[in-house]
What we know:
Blueprint: E1 13-22, E2 28-36, E3 43-47, E4 57-60, E5 66-69, H1 71-82, E6 87-90, H2 92-95, H3 101-117, E7 120-124, H4 129-140, H5 146-149, H6 153-160, H7 170-175, E8 180-184, E9 187-190, H8 191-204, H9 218-225, H10 234-241, H11 250-257, H12 267-270, H13 299-309, H14 314-327, H15 340-344, H16 356-372, H17 383-387, H18 389-397
Parallel strand pairs: 3-6, 3-7, 7-8
Antiparallel strand pairs: 1-2, 1-6, 4-5, 8-9
Amino acid sequence: MGYIYEPLRTKHSIRLIKLLGRTPTGLVSCTLEQYEIDRAPPYRALSYYWGSPAPTDEISLGSEGSLMIHKNLWHFLDQMVLDNRAGHYWTDALCIDQKSVEEKNHQVAYMGEVYRQAREVIMWLGRERRAQDSMSILFEHVAMSPRHRCGRQRDLADLLAVPYWKRLWVVQEIALARSVLVICGSVSLRKKDFTTALIRCAEDTYTYFQDQWVNLQASRTEQRDSDIGPPATVSQVLRLVTLERKQQPLWQLISTFSQGICSDPRDKVFGLLGLRSLPHLRSTMAEGSPIMVDYHRSLNDMFWDVIFNCPVPEDKMQNFILELSRNMSISLDRIPSSLGDYVSRRDTSSPLTQTRDTALQTRTTALHIARTIKPLLTAPYSSEDVYGHDAYSELVSR
Length: 398
């Protein structure tokens, strides 16, 4: 019997997996339990990549039935059983009813809090034997002198070829964590030790900080790279694991990480909104931002929500529009007429701004930038047509 999700009781409710062990028939055994997040038992939140979209493996939920899950998630749960790491876990694929758009809207917006409250976040790099061996060998040698560490570049390349590093969601999952454990198969390291080892290995060969270094490993990773692009570089991984130390506005984070892989292109933005809770981002985009998680909205509408509500410096906005549109596969052949609503809306309570004039100025700037990319547009338009006569007259008269 398949598992049937019961609705979450309150807006602060979450589900947790309680990992028990195995059934007599060998299935991974667990239960799904609801808690108010402030009253939840200590739990670990999982940061991982889904892999194949098709569920392939069954787990038991006791008397409540069973669920089919993705291979990589099954590998993780199976490894935790093997390592005797029973306890409570949170993972999006199981703890969110993926068939309920309303629940996804709420829980995805709440994920920042889920990862902040977790006693530990686990970076699960998978269970591929080559990566597992590389991690073990690489970090056994990290305490040695540079002379003895020579030749470890291929092990580093194997480890960084893991698809995890290309996933967009891991950005906020790691940045918001209070404690991080990196696990690859049966090998585990604290994030601090992982980062230190990575830096030391990279110092041995400075070219590892260059994007071109992946060519050294091309022959060994060609097959694995075909679906996810080239392996991550050391600098990309270091940028990810040290993100909580950086003073960057949210628009810059979106620009930096929107190339990350996710199954829904809207997650190029939704997957980073949890970062608004970081202290150094609160001044650039408040929690009540008009950019809200809403999977009912079209990709195109959400894209323009970002453009018109993200406080991007004027000299950066053109590149921001072009880069984000490319990463989200948005066509710039037409600016939607609905954008007139943005210009005519003058909400003095906007969390982005303190005055209606600066709110309007943000949108005026975006209109100006839209004009500068007009050569890219295949459909002719006039500013008056796009925004409506009254809104456009107000713009040009100010």
